[in-house]
Amino acid sequence: MLEITTTRHNPLVDPVLSVWSWEIPVYLFLGGMIAGMMVLGGLNMLRLLKGEKPEGFYSVQTPVLGFVLLNLGMGALFLDLAHKLYVFRVYLAFEPTSPMSWGSWVLILVFPVLILSALIRLPEAWPWLGDRVPAARGWSQAILARPGLVKTLAWLNVTLGIGLGIYTGILLSTMVARPLWNSAILGPLFLVSGLSAAAAMVHLVSSLVPGHPAPRGFLGGALAMLVQPLGERPPAPGTANGLVRADLAFLAVELVLIFLLIVGLVSSSASHAQAAQIILSGKFAVLFWVGVIAAGIVVPLALQALELGHRIPHTIIPALLVLGGGFALRWVMVGAGQASHVIAATGM
Amino acid sequence: MPRFGMVIDTLKCVGCMDCVVACQTENDVPQGYCRDWIVTEVRGAFPSLSMEIRSERCNHCDNPPCVTCCPTGASHVESFGKTVQVTAEKCIGCKACLSACPYGARFVHPDGYADKCTFCLHRVKEGKDPACVSVCPTRCMTFGDLDDPKSAVSELLASRKSHTLLPEAGTKPRVSYLT
Amino acid sequence: MEYLSRRRFLKISAATFGAGAVGSQIPAATSFAMGSKPPAGKVETIPTYCEMCFWKCGGVAHVRGGKLWKFEGNPLDPMSRGRLCPRGTGAVGTHYDPDRLQRPLIRSGERGKESWTAVTWDEAFNHIATKMKKIAAEHGPESIALWKHGSGARFLEHVMRAYGCINKGAPSFAQCRGPRDIGYLLTYGTGLGSPEPTDIANTRCLVLIGTHLGENMHNTQVQEFAQAIANKATLIVVDPRHSVAASKAKHWLPVKPGTDLALLLAWMNVLVGEGLYDKEFVAKHGHGFDKFAAAIAANTPEWAEAETGIAAATIRATAREMASHRPASLVHPGRRMNWYGNDTQRARATALLNALLGNWGRKGGLFLSAGMNFAGYGFPKFPAATRPKVDNPDGRWPFADEEVTTGLREATITGKPYPVKGWVVYGTNLLQTLPNEKETLEAISKLDLLVVVDTHPSEISGYADVVLPESMFLERHDDLYVGWGRQGWAALRQPVVAPPADQKPAWWMAKQLGERLGVGEYMPFKDMDEYLAKRCEKAGVDYAKLRAEGILMGPKKPITVDEGVEIVFDTPSKKVEFWSDQLAKAGFDPVPKYAAPEAAPAGFFRLITGRAPVHTFSRTQTNTLLHDLMKENEVWVNAATAKSAGLVNGQYVKLKNQDGVVSNRVKVKATQRIRPDTLYMVYGFGHTNRMLKRAYLKGASAAQLNTRYKVDPIMGGTSIHQNFVTFEKEA
After folding, report:
1. Which chain A residues are Cβ-neighbours of B163 within 8 angstroms?
2. By the CB < 8 Å criterion, does C331 face chain B?
3. pTM of the entire structure?
4. pLDDT by residue (tens digit) across C80-137?
5. Measured between beta carbons, which residues in chain B are less than 8 angstroms from residue A104?
6. CATH architecture of B4-178
7. Could you give the count of Cα atoms lying within 13 Å of C514 in the half-sphere of its Cβ?
8. How confident is the model over A243-258, as pLDDT tens digits?
9. Per the structure, how many domains does chain A have?
10. CB contact under 8 A, B100 and A174
11. Residue C394: left if φ>0, alpha if ψ -120 to 50, beta else—which one?
12. Which domain holds residue A322?
């Protein structure tokens, strides 16, 4: 029998650590998705170089969508800070032992890469910009004229994307104090989850407004540019199938990684095993099993397999479920991770 | 260069919380927050019981995870005394250090930065003990240089049974409890 | 590498902001230096003695930039020895407490409705003086009584006595240490006073009966307790609860509440029966030993086992253990002894046990307190009393040697021997202090005038006609404290900061009142500086030095037999009375006799109470610092008992006592640390005065549940542990 009492009752720390609230899962989710879009977009840009017809969506929309979402994500991150006026301090230092420092600098580099990547096809996709800002067409052509630059941009997209997608998982996994996160699997898991969310997001957005000609106005053109693929409208069946196949692969890998994460925790120390129970049978169990596993991975996996086998038509439902599940995964990990703690070995 | 640590005799400690309130007045800790606290562990079943009472605070670890995770260097190891300190003007309030500390020793100061026990470095520089050590009516707390074999802390550790908190976390804490 | 990068970026920032800043040395003038650096300001230190409780430790207050910063122990002070307890350390929280009384109040509605009109001091004193003169004219000044606890009462008592108010009472006698003092007075010819002359620092064996040092924060004794632990002294703790002290004990005896006397008698039975007692001491100083030995012959460990639940073998072993260390073997006499209403006899039993151990005047036992002389100011004589006091008519409680508050309240209710129509209550929350609050309310209903003087609102201030806000001790002067202990000493109290609102010191109130009552000549000094300076001058003491240092030590005197003290006993026999003829003559047991406590009704548990180290009675719950350390009390319930009652640790429940009184909701602490048949709570919570905003209805009031009590026939002490409670679940 063990009775432990403490007199400490610091806000946000006791009785359970809750310093990271909704802002962090939002950022993790958006960040992961942007990372996925950059990786897929970067690979797509390489196809452009090879002369293959690239999936139009990736060339323009993902960098622009990524740019918009990145602002939202970093906005959430900024909202989370307790000492907001001092945020610039993170850009006056580079701390190599701090994954957050790495991530902050990666985020800064991501912006220009996204802008340049978007410029490749942007004037074409958003005619309003192309007409009003002729320089945009000039930049676009200048970039396209330099295959070397495009190749660099492509690889930057891929590497920064991987960095962006994996660093948050690494950040959490370094914390011995939070046994639920303390696994090397977390980084790859977040990356794969981000890839899956990216594929789902692209699929969702590209299915939303099929078959309309691109408006030429400012606002209409901007919105259309985000959602309409260049080239064929509606997207060719091959395009849709490609996205579904990609997402299936990501979902399957994600499920395996989650399984490995849990197995690793449960067979590790008492602290890790107890931490795992928070999501398996404890406070976060329902959200985990229903939101993350069932609705977020298993059901969309099954639906998309059926879609590929032409048993059911393509819908946006699997994409919505994957996005919901991806957010749920972040929500669960952030909340349950903070609730986990190192338990003292018995015997004093 | 000294390496400061603390040795606390749990046999003498009565858990009166004098250390908690002395720290709060000495360091203008905001109301509702504490930098040190009392933990009581009771083992056994009535009437065969044993109890350990501990005054806990930041352990100023030799391997501090709160320092490695800090993106700005606000959380750092001070060269004097090798204690772990926070430079408030560098802190962005990201709270990674709060998540990284297995002892829950930190909190977010209402002004926005991460805060915790400083080992009363401002007092130590004047040759005094930290406020908690100075106030303790049972004189159960000793502060000093762990690298000096002749210091009171070193001699206590050499002559008595002791344990640290969560050694399995790999933090190498510098606060020890005599039993 | 990381330093290089950081410095490079910092140089950029410095250049950018042009502040010449390097690293963290950004000038304090900018907003960057907030919080991480302490507030600016010159630090002044002023010594004074503490009033957070009754121990009166000497401390040193620190003021920074004109604002009260912290309060630390005065290294010169023999009580604190440079270290204050948590209440003292938290004293600044009383200065900053927003729930304090701010200005004089006169009741505008019915008593107890807590509707007030704020008035000026003049209005308040005129009101009081007018009422007092009216009562004096109708019933005599004896009809106005003073209730007191604390240093500030000194001049109120002085002025009231000058006016002819001979009736007074301090609950510290009948509701606290009275039984103990009389028990020791009857045995040794002297009460023990405060602080008790316990040589805990040097004892080889310390026996604590209910004394929960560490939670009960008698500063010096806790400090010495730690010394005893460091010296590896044997610790024997008798307590139904596994207190902090019990957790450090070699032997913890979880005695059944109410049976302590059986254990004490059995211990003495073993010491006498096995010849382990100090024969020399008994032969030289004992009176009636043989009759005493015969009287306790039947109180064997086997007999006691049945009563106490403690194994006979344990009783024998612990008796032998404490005998083996004599004379440096000490049974702590206790302090708040008023448990069951037969407490004088139980105190006498500990006195006799100490006598068997021969520790009177011995190192490691009870030393003989030394004091010092300090000349008084010199006042005119008081008018002689022409009537008897009302509290103990005809010596109803024959051995009380102080006023019996129990009797003062009763006299107020009955109007016999003569009416008491006015109460001035200083620093004591009578509705929580006296047992059965209904009776206190009944007494109040008979009053024409109820004045409450305090720093904080309290249950009784809610019923007052006039409430006078006293400044807290850091804001005022009081008289010198001249203390007795290992060495006598004098301590000075002087103001450190101004009161935050219209609070005033009690000496000033006394002076104002005295002038209006026509006894102004009894307060001839214009302020306390003048008073203290004159006292120091008369005593040959350097007042300026005392103001700078705060403490003046008296002469060192021998305090133990080994140092050359001659022990004398001011008893009828001039010896230690193992057999008390005077008790026998008065119809009481000459040797303590055990009576079994009543059994709890089915489903009920005996409620026992104690202290927390961070609070003092019922008056610190809103202190800004101490409130945060403990916002509410909890009811300790044995884990198995809780389970059977369907209670979970941390849930709230109400307690209902045998008279149907239901407490406020209180948090359950389900723990192994208490007997299954007993519940425990810290005293002083469950406030019902709405002015105590942060303490209002927090926790439960043990006082409210103390509706059934017994009165000690020997000296009028009242009980607090004679109530049984059951659980009443919240809807």
Report:
1. 348
2. no
3. 0.93
4. 999 999 999 999 999 999 999 999 999 999 999 999 999 999 999 999 999 999 999 9
5. 71
6. 2-Layer Sandwich (3.30)
7. 22
8. 788 888 999 999 999 9
9. 1
10. yes
11. left
12. 23-339
